[in-house]
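A quick aside before the break. I want you to see a complete sequence-to-structure record at least once, exactly as it would be stored in a machine-readable document. Don't worry about memorizing anything.
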Amino acid sequence: MPAFTPNLTNPARKGCAARALSAALWLAVPAAQAGGGSPPPGADLFTNGALQRLDIRLSAEAARSLRQQAREFVPATVRDGATLYANVALHLKGAVGSFRPLDDKPSFTLDFCRLPGGRRFHGLRRIHLNNSVEDPSYLNEKIGSELFTAAGVPAPRVGRALVSLNGRALGLYVLKEGFTEDFLACHFQQVGGDLFEPEDGHDVDQRLKRNTVQAPAGNRACLKALAAAALEPDPARRWARLEQTLDTRRFVAFMAMEVILCHRDGYCAARNNFRVYHDLDSGKIVFLPHGMDQLLGKADFPCRPFMAGLVAQAVVDTAEGKARYEAALHSLFTNLFQSAVLLARVEQLTRELRPFLSGPDFDRLQKQADLVKERISRRRQGLEQQLSRPPLQPLQFQGHVGRPEDWVAVETPAGGASERTQGPGGVPALHIVAGPRTLASWRTRALLAPGRYRFEGRARVAGVKPLPFGAHQGAGLRIAGNVRQAPNLLGDSSWQLLAAQFQVEQTSREVELICELRASAGQAWFDLDSLRIVRLP
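That is the input. The structure line, written in tokens, reads:
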């Protein structure tokens, strides 16, 4: 396995933060003080203890416009202490889970240079104010940003702010710098490369949305070259082509940190919440993390998960890429994901807010911070267990049949249960009882040589009702990363044989097998003795 040393030296100019910090101290040092020279734009927003008080004012016409077209910019006025910013372009932001309308607690994008007469906010063109409704600790984005940065992966800086809108106190927000030239200048010598985000498409082989940084419009050759390299069928040639188009050193660190932090809504696991930048100095693509408000939610999240992202899968399906990922995973886990340092950082960030919150508000925040500390400790233990296990051995076949073992319950539903039991007729079974919002499964992994296979087994259900969202409903079998091929089992059924065919290409790889139930009520059984992989001609 090749050695991996995090690139902790920032190549940026103009005194942007140097990253050569020891694992014991890097979290406690403000970015602007980590290296010599003048601090980067916006440094005062993100140093320890900084908390902005922002009063946003909208005209009646602007408010009416946002109620009708939330994503369209309107003019606003922003007061930051004694400083007044006029002609600030503002729109609402947020995805399905986090979006809130104007009369609730909305999230905002503020562009200070978009309209005539605008001026920079603490040296920055653009900031985001996130309502953090999916992270009541207001910590995940901050911790995630600092860990990615320490791993040598550029990430937006994060602070906190108290926000009011037309005199109405909205409360605490997460303040993030935007993906602009200001951000890029802290990490790259040139800021004129193309920057893309997954709004129109979800991966580099699709049409990603081009961001608004100052780069020649319509230059997508870098994305096309990366997609072609990732789709190269020969693994040896693929790695060579990836090295020509992708900053592989940063990318394996990006992959490893997404996995360590259990960023299940990021690029590797979900092809979501990322940016890609074409670094003009190296001529290569760099992946940037985004949307980290839901980290560390699953202590046993696999350290070698199925990679949904095309580039991530292409990397780990090569011998060199897999070895580099393993080296990065072990190195970053050992050197950066240190419980004592992280728990102290959570305490520090929470304590900084005490002077600005009421007693009840701070007590609620402290309880959420305690939950974050618990998730950090559990994730550390989960990764230690996984990384200490011996490497997965190839699945043994008798004739053309292999029987996977070591099934593990994943995401046991609230209000429900996952257990090994005897199913109807005394059949040994993997059992899931649904709660009101169940996306639960039993999973295992198998190391398979190249070839065609069929994963099959018997299942039955009782009283299963579907969820009001999602593609896979009821009970079913599938391979991670693939859609179900057999009909969804809903309502009541006797034992039914389900199957999913799949193929392992050029090199041996780990395949994740899933027996799942997605439902609002009911229960499912999977006949344990019937679960098998059949090797096809």
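Two observations worth writing down. The two ends are 34 Å apart (CA to CA). The first strand starts at residue 51 and ends at 57. We'll return to this after the break.
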